[in-house]
Design goal:
heterodimer, A: Rossmann fold, 2 domains, six-stranded mixed beta sheet, four-stranded antiparallel beta sheet, B: mainly alpha, binds adenosine-5'-triphosphate, binds magnesium ion
C-alpha cells in the first residue's frame, strides 16, 4: 500500500523567511505519525501545503496518492483537519458548525457525533462567541473525528484542553488507529506523542532532523551510564563516543553514544564492575537537544 | 471611575476623524438650510405663502416635524427636523462602539488588567458622546446666530440638539448593558430610536394628538425654537437623561465584564438540513447586514423621494430657480434631473454595501475562518462565488427597494403612483452596473492583492468626491470619467443609453474574473 503522505524536498518561502527548507516527511497508511518541532519550525506551513491551502515553491508532496494542490477537492473528501486555533462564526452554534463542516466534507456519522459530544462534554447549543478556547477546540475535534475519513490532519489539536479532555482525545485517537485511520499529529505535548504515535518526525528550521519510531530515535542517542568500579577508569574520557564523564573515585557517570556502547562496556570491565545502571534518553532530553539547537 | 481620563483620550484618538466629521456636517446643515430658505423666500410674504403651502403639507410634516411659525427661524427649525434622528442615531452608535463593541472584541479585558474602575468604560464613552453632542449644539447655535437669527431661538435650538443626543447616548448606555453582542445592543438602541421616530410622526399627524410627548425627538421639536421657546421642555430631556443613567450604572455594576443581562438564546444543537453548502453558510454570515442595508436604503428612498416634489415646489415658489428651470426645459425636466441626481446618491450608498459584502471574504480569511471551509470539499471558486453573490445581488435588491420606496413616496405626493413608481424604480436600477464595478473592484483586490483590499473603500470615497465636487472644481472630463457613476445615463431625464451600461458590466465582469482567478492561485490565508 502507498504511503498516506509522502513529501520530499519541500520548500516554502514567505518573503525573506524560508519557512520550509527541503522538508522530507513520510506517513505510512494506518499509522499515527507525530510531527514535532519548536515554534516557527514550519509544522503548520507543511500542513497547509498538504491541505492545498499554500502552494509549495519546490519539492514534491503526495497525499493519499494525489497532488494536494491540484486534486484538493477530491482529497478533502477523504480527510479531516483540525487547526491549532479553531475560530468559529460568532452567530453559528457549535452543533451547526459541526454539521456544516461534516456535510461540506461529504457526510457526517451522526451516531459517532452524538457519542463524541457526550465524551467531550460539549454543549452544541452555544453560539460561537460564547465558547471558551478549549471548547472551541472541542468543536473542531468533534467535527473532524465524527467524519468517516481515511486521514486526520491535526495541528496541535489539544491546545487548551484540560487534562481530562486530553485523556478523552487520546482514547479517541487510539480507537481510530485500531479502525485503520491514518493520523498526522502535530504536537508539543510529549506524553501525547509517546502514548499515541507509531513514528515521529522532528522538524527544525523547515527541515526534518529525525524520523523514525521512538525506539529507533532513542537508539540514535546517548545512554546515561552510572557505574561503581573497583578502580578509577583512567582514559575513559578519551574513548570515542563517550561524553560528560564525572568521576568520583570508583563512582563514575557518563553518557555514551549508542554506537560506542559495546566497546565502552568492554573497556569498563577491566576496572571491575560492581554495579551498573543504564538509562536510555527520555523523550524530553531527546527533544530538548533538538529544540535547543534552534536557540543557540 | 479610575482610568476614565485615559479611556476618554483613547476613544478620542480612535474617533479623531469620525467625531469631527459628523459634528461639522450636522452643525453646518441647519446653517445652510437657513441660508437657502432666506434666499428662496426673501420676503415675509414669500415665507408665509411657503409656510401655509408645502411646509404644512401632511407628508412634509410627517417626515420632518411640525411647523410652529413662518419666521425664517421657525422654517429652518422644521427643515432640520430629520437631523434629530441622525444625532440620536450617532449618539447611540458611538456609546455602544466604545462600550459593548470593545468588550466583545476583548480589548476591554486587556485594558481591565491595568488599573481601571468598574465604570470607567461606560463613563468614558458617555463623556465623549455627550461632549460631542454639546459641541454640536454650540456650533449649531453659533451657525444660526451667524445667519442673523434671534439669539433665544438659536440657543434653544442648539440645546435641542444636545438634549436629543444626550437622551439617546443614555439609551445606548442602557442597551450596551443588556446583550452580550454589540450587534444585539445596536438592535435595541436603534429600535428605541425607530419607535421614538414613529411616535413623533404619529403625534404630529393629527390635531389633539399627544403621542409625540412620548418621544424624545418629539420633545426637542416641541421646544419650539424661534416660535415662543418653551424652555421647560428641556427639563423632560434632562429628566430622561438622568433616569436612564440611573438605570445604566447599576446595571453595569451588577453584570460581569463581557456578560449581558439578557440571557443569550442558545442556538440549535444541530444544523438545519439546508445548511450544507457554501452559499447557505454565506447567507448566515451576510443576512443581517443585507437586511440592515435594505432597510437603510428603503428609508433613504422614502426620505429622498419625499424631497422631490418639495424641491419642485420650492423651486417654483422662487423666482430665480424657476427661471433656471425654464431654461432647463420646464418643471418636468427639473424633477427628472433631480431624481437622477438623487438616485446617484442612493447608488453610492448601495456601493458601500457591495464593497462591505465583498470584503467579508477578507474578514473571514484574516480571522482564519476560511481555512477550515477550504479544507473541506469546497472549491475556492464556489467559496468566492458564495460571497460575491451577495456583493452582486445585494445591491440589486437594495437599489430596487430604494427605488420602489422613493417611487411610492414621490408618486403619492403627486398622486401618480402608477406612473412614477416604474420611472423612479428604473432610475434606481440603472445605477446597478456602476455599483457592480466597485463591488467587483473589491473582489479583484481580494483575489490579487489581498492586503490592499480595503483600498476599495478609497475608490468609493474618490467616486463620492468626483461626483459631488468634481463639477464645482471644474475637473477635466477624463478625471470625471474615472468614476463609473459618470457613465450612468441620467435616467429619467435622459434616454436609457445601453452602450455605457454594457461597458460597465464588462469592466465589472473582468475585475471579478481576475479576482476569482487570483484567489484560485494564491496562498490562503494571507495575513
Ligand atoms: N503567512 C505567512 N507569512 C509570513 N511568514 C509566515 C507565514 N506563515 C508562516 N510564516 C513563517 O514561517 C515560519 C514557520 O511557521 P509555522 O507556522 O509553519 O510554524 P509552526 O511549526 O507551526 O510553529 P508553532 O509551533 O508555533 O505553531 C515562521 O517563521 C513563520 O513566521
Ligand atoms: Mg503551528
Amino acid at each position: 500500500m502507498d504511503d498516506a503522505i509522502a513529501v520530499s524536498g519541500l520548500v516554502k518561502t514567505f518573503g525573506r523567511t524560508r519557512a520550509l527548507d527541503g522538508l522530507d516527511l513520510t506517513v505510512r497508511t494506518g499509522e499515527v505519525h507525530g510531527f514535532l518541532g519548536p515554534n516557527g519550525s514550519g509544522k503548520s506551513t507543511t500542513i497547509r501545503i498538504l491541505l492545498g491551502l499554500l502552494r509549495a515553491d519546490a519539492g514534491t508532496a503526495r497525499l493519499l496518492g494525489g497532488d494536494p494542490w491540484r486534486d484538493a477537492v477530491a482529497l478533502h473528501r477523504r480527510l479531516a483537519y483540525v487547526p491549532g486555533d479553531v475560530t468559529l462564526w460568532p452567530n453559528l452554534s457549535g452543533g451547526e458548525v459541526i454539521d456544516l463542516l461534516g456535510r461540506l466534507r461529504g457526510g457526517l456519522n451522526q451516531k459517532r457525533k452524538a457519542e463524541l459530544l457526550e465524551r467531550f462534554e460539549l454543549d452544541p447549543r452555544k453560539k460561537g462567541r460564547a465558547y471558551s478556547k478549549g471548547n472551541r477546540q472541542k468543536v473542531g475535534l468533534v467535527a473532524a473525528l465524527a467524519s468517516d475519513v481515511e486521514l486526520l490532519i491535526l495541528d496541535e489539536p489539544t491546545s487548551g484542553l484540560d487534562p481530562l479532555m486530553e485523556e478523552t482525545f487520546r482514547a479517541c485517537i487510539a480507537e481510530d488507529k485500531r479502525n485503520g485511520r491514518t493520523v498526522l499529529l502535530s504536537s508539543h505535548i510529549l506524553a501525547e506523542v509517546e502514548a499515541l504515535c507509531d513514528r515521529v518526525t522532528i522538524i527544525r528550521n523547515g527541515r526534518a532532523v529525525e524520523s523514525g519510531t521512538l525506539d529507533e530515535l532513542r537508539h540514535l542517542h546517548r545512554t546515561s551510564i552510572d557505574v561503581e568500579l573497583a578502580a578509577t577508569p583512567d582514559g575513559l574520557a578519551e574513548l570515542p563516543g563517550v561524553h560528560d564523564v564525572k568521576i568520583d573515585r570508583g563512582h563514575v557517570r557518563f553518557d555514551v553514544d549508542a554506537k560506542a556502547l559495546d566497546d565502552t562496556l568492554r573497556y569498563l570491565t577491566k576496572f571491575g564492575v560492581r554495579s551498573l545502571v543504564s538509562q536510555p534518553p527520555t523523550l524530553e532530553e531527546l527533544f530538548l537537544r533538538h529544540y535547543e539547537g534552534v536557540r543557540s | 471611575m479610575t482610568g476614565t481620563g485615559k479611556l476618554v483620550r483613547l476613544a478620542l484618538r480612535r474617533d479623531r476623524l469620525l467625531l469631527p466629521l459628523w459634528i461639522v456636517v450636522l452643525a453646518v446643515l441647519p446653517m445652510t438650510y437657513a441660508a437657502s430658505i432666506a434666499e428662496l423666500y426673501p420676503t415675509a410674504a414669500d415665507r408665509q405663502a411657503y409656510a401655509a403651502g408645502s411646509a404644512s403639507d401632511p407628508s412634509y410634516v410627517a417626515l420632518l416635524g411640525p411647523l410652529f411659525g413662518s419666521s425664517l427661524g421657525a422654517l429652518t427649525a422644521q427643515r432640520s427636523g430629520m437631523l434629530f434622528v441622525i444625532v440620536g442615531l450617532i449618539s447611540v452608535l458611538t456609546v455602544i462602539r466604545h462600550t459593548r463593541t470593545e468588550e466583545e472584541a476583548g480589548r476591554r479585558e486587556l485594558l481591565g488588567a491595568a488599573v481601571l474602575g468598574r465604570h470607567a468604560g461606560l463613563t468614558a464613552a458617555l463623556v465623549v458622546t455627550c461632549g460631542a453632542d454639546l459641541v454640536l449644539g454650540l456650533l449649531v447655535t453659533l451657525g444660526l446666530l451667524g445667519q442673523d437669527l434671534p439669539a433665544g431661538g438659536a440657543v434653544a435650538f442648539g440645546l435641542a440638539f444636545a438634549a436629543c443626543g444626550w437622551v439617546f447616548a443614555m439609551v445606548g448606555a442602557v442597551a450596551a448593558q443588556l446583550t452580550e453582542s454589540a450587534g444585539g445592543a445596536r438592535g435595541i438602541g436603534l429600535s428605541v430610536l425607530g419607535i421614538a421616530f414613529v411616535l413623533r410622526l404619529a403625534g404630529d399627524a393629527g390635531d389633539g394628538n399627544v403621542l409625540h410627548w412620548l418621544s424624545p425627538i418629539g420633545w426637542v421639536q416641541h421646544i419650539r425654537a424661534f416660535a415662543g421657546e418653551r424652555w421647560w421642555v428641556l427639563g423632560l430631556a434632562a429628566g430622561a437623561t438622568a433616569a436612564l443613567a440611573a438605570v445604566a450604572y447599576p446595571l453595569s455594576a451588577r453584570r460581569d465584564l463581557g456578560a449581558g443581562l439578557l440571557p443569550t438564546r442558545p442556538g440549535p444543537a444541530a444544523a438545519a438540513p439546508t445548511l450544507r453548502t457554501p452559499l447557505a453558510l454565506a447567507w448566515r454570515l451576510h443576512r443581517a447586514a443585507l437586511l440592515g442595508w435594505a432597510v437603510g436604503l428603503a428609508v433613504l428612498g422614502v426620505v429622498l423621494g419625499g424631497t422631490v416634489d418639495y424641491a419642485r415646489t420650492a423651486a417654483e415658489d422662487s423666482k430665480q430657480v424657476s427661471d433656471i428651470m425654464d431654461r432647463l426645459g420646464g418643471a418636468g425636466s427639473f424633477t427628472d434631473s433631480y431624481l437622477a441626481g438623487v438616485m446617484s446618491l442612493v447608488a453610492l450608498a448601495a456601493s458601500g454595501y457591495a464593497i462591505q459584502a465583498a470584503l467579508k471574504m477578507r474578514t473571514e480569511e484574516a480571522a482564519l475562518r476560511s481555512e477550515p471551509v477550504l479544507a473541506t470539499a469546497v472549491t475556492r471558486t464556489s467559496w468566492t462565488a458564495s460571497h460575491a453573490a451577495f456583493a452582486a445581488l445585494g445591491p440589486a435588491l437594495g437599489l430596487a427597494v430604494a427605488g420602489v420606496a422613493a417611487g411610492l413616496t414621490y408618486g403619492l405626493s403627486v398622486h401618480d403612483v402608477a406612473g412614477q413608481l416604474p420611472r423612479v424604480t428604473g432610475a434606481a436600477m440603472v445605477q446597478l452596473p456602476a455599483v457592480w464595478v466597485l463591488g467587483a473592484l473589491a473582489v479583484g483586490l481580494f483575489g490579487l492583492l489581498p492586503r490592499l483590499a480595503p483600498a476599495a473603500w478609497a475608490a468609493l470615497a474618490a467616486c463620492v468626491l468626483l461626483g459631488q465636487i468634481g463639477a464645482i472644481l471644474q475637473l477635466s472630463q477624463w478625471a470625471l470619467d474615472v468614476s463609473p457613476f459618470t457613465h450612468i445615463p441620467k435616467v429619467p431625464a435622459a434616454p436609457l443609453a445601453v452602450t455605457p451600461l454594457a461597458w460597465l458590466v464588462a469592466v465589472a465582469a473582468a475585475l471579478a474574473v481576475a479576482g476569482f482567478a487570483g484567489f484560485r492561485r494564491r496562498d490562503v490565508p494571507v495575513t
